[in-house]
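Exercise: predict the structure of this protein bound to guanosine-5'-monophosphate.
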Amino acid sequence: MKGKLIVVSGPSGVGKGTIVKTLVKRRADVVESVSCTTRQPRAGEKHGREYFFLSKEEFLDRIEKNDFLEYDEHFGNYYGTPISFVRETLKEKSVILEIDVVGALNAKKRIPESVLVMIAPPSVTELEKRLRGRASESETEIQNRLSRLEYELSQKDKYDFVIVNDILENAIARLEEIIDKK
Ligand code: ADP
Ligand code: 5GP
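Solution:
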């Protein structure tokens, strides 16, 4: 294994996607794993880029075939990390997974060398502002996501590192440091 497996979690809207996408654009030696999901694509999302969008039947079939490093159900949809991509890519590069707390702990069980990184918001008010600012979910979906916040942050002691995403560039730099740490 040449690269590191970095597992990034944190409440919805905290800026995980923004941090990870900016970092992988800058670094040819770091790749983001594309998860599978049964949720509907949001406007602008593309199959194979943000997610592989599968039907529930396809997803259940892949669970049967042991194709996921981990999987979980959120907001009534399945999400999972394809294991073959992760194992192959780690031979050459570091891989970032952007997954929830339960998924992260399950991934660490399967691959104990993985490094768990929690992204935390500077405050709840700021998180709510970012979620609403993104304008991609309905009010009910926003409330669903906010209701998980306390639980997610309460798990931070199980993580190797916590990064507060206050100033975006600082958060990106901190994640790079963690990846490059020997
Ligand atoms: P997540 O992937 O964690 O759900 P996103 O990356 O979609 O979150 O970010 C949610 C919103 O917050 C986006 O509109 C993004 O531009 C904004 N955002 C991300 N990081 C910061 C930051 N440090 N300061 C202000 N806004 C931010
Ligand atoms: P969203 O629908 O906002 O893209 O993602 C909803 C939740 O699913 C987020 O908490 C996200 O981290 C999580 N998620 C995305 N991909 C995976 C995955 O492959 N496995 C698990 N367990 N969770 C995931």
